[in-house]
Amino acid sequence: MDQPALAKSQSSILEIWGGTPLEGKVKISGAKNSALVLMAGALLCSEPCRLQNVPSLADIQGMTRILESLGVKIKQSIDTLELDPTNLTSTDAPYELVSKLRASFFAIGPLLARMGVAKVPLPGGCAIGARPVEIHVRGLKQLGAQVYIEHGVVHAYASQLKGAKIYLDYPSVGATETLMMAATLAEGETILDNAAQEPEVIDLANFCRSMGAKISGAGTKTITISGVPNLHATDYDIVPDRIEAGTFLMAGAITHSDILLESVVPEHLSAVTAKLKEVGFQLTPDANRGLRIQSKGVHTGTEIETLPYPGFPTDLQSLFMALLTLSQGSSVVTETVFENRLGHVPELVRMGADIKVKGNVAVIQGVPFLSGAPVTGTDLRATAALAVAALAANGKTSISGLQHLDRGYANFEQKLRDLGARIERVPTVEA
Ligand code: EPZ
User: Fold this and answer.
1) Best mutation site among 170, 207, 312 for ligand 1, i.e. most ligand atoms within 8 A of its Cβ?
2) pLDDT for res 286
3) Which domains can be identified in the chain, with CATH numbers?
4) Does pLDDT of 92 surpass 90?
5) Which of 5, 65, 93, 296 has the smallest count of CB within 10 Å of its CB?
6) In terms of Cα–Cα distance, which of 159, 202, 156, 155 is closest to 180?
């Protein structure tokens, strides 16, 4: 996020008056976690490519700056990006940009595969965890690269990557994507075993295949890539954002509303919709990529354990917890993917929730109501969870930490206002 945008986000807060049911429909944007990696994937190609359904987000601006620093020419018009990576001028991703956007580490695989060299600063940790990249690094070495870390920068060299059979210790989304991209231009066949199965991995594979890559098995635990000498131009439509869709499902659920989400792939949300049905909501997919949620009165508690896809997504753990604070009965939420992703709990408790945390397990006793309060978001999905809770709370909630929210949700408050929510973004007093 550039300084002006960061300053703007940090100098404003969201004010939400709870208690208003939502109604109508909301169009879900393209997936942030697909757009970011596809932008990096464009580095693999020596011809221009177009990405459509790109969400308008601070993180997309950040990735644009990083690619431009490498020599990629980028034109953005509304939700379309034209990227021209024909003449790369650098293979060093600048620290001051990488430190602001972890996803910039995605540049290492494509730069190494196409240019034979890449220098990318370690992405470092964030509020939800240490976020190491050893699975990425080990896999690149197995593809024949020389890789070492010096002064916080990952240096990687390979005149020609060679296909290999790689077992991922953990089905890391990022590592699967890094290694899949690197392998598209390697000599011979690469097999990724214990690979991540997220829809964004499938979207990346489809994007690379549209450029001529030979990839099979994306979406399963075993992905096979047969290297090709080079890739060609493409025009690609990014998959809808399942996490934004889940966020709006929770907004509809917690306010006991009847709303329709448009531009959704319901099967990408199977774990989430199953849990929403289990606790008492009605979910109805429709023919043209729509998904309707209706409340049937009170909702009960349940148990949630976050897991790699197709398990319950860690990115919706905080959102579902917000909903469970108002359920009838108790619930248990276990976060198994990240080591520090319960930062939203103390803030929900400030709003009157009854949540006890022990390690990575939260036990929630449903309460009859939440009360609006001044709260602070600690990371992207925690801030979204506070906004969802505020929609159902009595009175006004003031939410700071919008620099997190603006990274991952396009036109968040406008979409909620269009559904009837009482929500305003206001400058803070000191601003
Ligand atoms: C991607 O992060 C997403 N980000 C995250 O979304 C998402 O939460 C995560 O996948 C899990 O679904 C993007 O796609 C840009 P991982 P990533 O590698 O790739 C450990 C959001 O809110 N690990 O699957 O970083 C890691 O520490 C963001 O939109 C290693 O130990 O996730 C974590 O505990 C947050 N070594 C676990 O694996 C490694 O080399 C899952 O990480 C790599 C990962």
Assistant:
1) 170
2) 84
3) 3-29+241-427 (3.65.10.10), 32-237 (3.65.10.10)
4) yes
5) 296
6) 202
